[in-house]
Q: What sequence folds into this?
């Protein structure tokens, strides 16, 4: 009997607890989803291994050899240039001993040929002290710190173009958005020019005779169209604006070398005319007039062509 009483008491307690739990009712669905906090996306690596970089840049370049050689532009009492290379500078003429008529005939007094009298610019690449240009390079970084690439550059030499290409190696040390770097390369360059000074005598004519003659000097570039070796070393800094776009600035020193040097050559230029003597309009005799000048023929080589270059540009990284 006691066991039965205890059993009924236990069942009663169980039902009582169940009823109390059921009284709270099942959990109701509110229809609203809980807001889940997403973790912040990870910050990208500004500099990565297996990275391709494309740099597009403008450049200011300056020559290692600056200035010009002196040229005598003074004139003598007769108005002629003291730098006249023709010695003597004798013009053919006609002279009538009967009438006293004297003239320099057009036929025998064509303008002297143009004569190169010497090098003017000390620099033999730009034909001036400094210039502007630009270029592009593509680099592949096999690690975060080291990469190799190819570079093309062009510079505005005087009335000519100097351009070339290099294979480069770059080492960098990234921290945050910044990456200082050093670079070096080897390649080639072609083109450019050197300034030379030229003498020329120009005459005007009237009625078959010389009316006026004028001696003048002109400064003109002579193009250098020989391929030379080019070496480059430099250092710079890159700043990444985003993970894939950056700004770069550096300075490089460029060595032009490796070509066989051919020195300037000088040769004798000869012009010939004829004096004619008349007597009351009738031929009375002739005399040969010979003028000679030493002319420079420019050589070519790799001397006096080294230059520094400051570059500023944009980097696209992938």
A:
């Amino acid at each position: 009997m006691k066991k039965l009483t205890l059993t009924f008491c236990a069942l009663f307690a169980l039902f009582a607890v169940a009823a109390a739990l059921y009284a709270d009712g099942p959990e109701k669905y509110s229809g609203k989803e809980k807001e889940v906090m997403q973790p912040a996306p990870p910050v990208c690596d500004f500099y990565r291994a297996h990275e391709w970089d494309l740099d597009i840049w403008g450049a200011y370049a300056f020559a290692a050899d600056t200035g010009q050689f002196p040229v005598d532009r003074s004139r003598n009492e007769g108005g002629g240039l003291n730098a006249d290379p023709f010695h003597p500078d004798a013009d053919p003429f006609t002279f009538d001993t009967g009438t006293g008529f004297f003239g320099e005939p057009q036929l025998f007094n064509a303008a002297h040929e143009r004569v190169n009298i010497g090098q003017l610019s000390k620099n033999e690449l730009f034909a001036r002290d400094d210039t502007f240009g630009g270029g592009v390079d593509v680099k592949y970084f096999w690690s975060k710190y080291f990469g190799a690439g190819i570079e093309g550059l062009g510079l505005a030499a005087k009335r000519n173009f100097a351009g070339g290409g290099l294979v480069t190696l770059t080492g960098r040390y990234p921290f945050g958005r910044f990456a200082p770097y050093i670079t070096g390369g080897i390649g080639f360059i072609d083109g450019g020019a050197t300034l030379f000074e030229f003498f020329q005598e120009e005459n005007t004519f009237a009625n078959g005779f010389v009316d006026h003659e004028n001696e003048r000097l002109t400064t003109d570039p002579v193009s250098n169209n020989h391929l030379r070796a080019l070496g480059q070393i430099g250092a710079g800094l890159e700043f990444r604006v985003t993970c894939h776009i950056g700004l770069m600035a550096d300075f490089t020193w460029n060595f032009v070398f490796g070509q066989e040097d051919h020195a300037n050559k000088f040769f004798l230029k000869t012009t010939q005319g004829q004096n004619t003597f008349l007597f009351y309009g009738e031929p009375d005799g002739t005399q040969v007039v010979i003028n000679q000048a030493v002319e420079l023929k420019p050589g070519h080589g790799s001397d006096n062509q080294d230059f520094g270059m400051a570059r500023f540009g944009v980097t696209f990284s992938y």
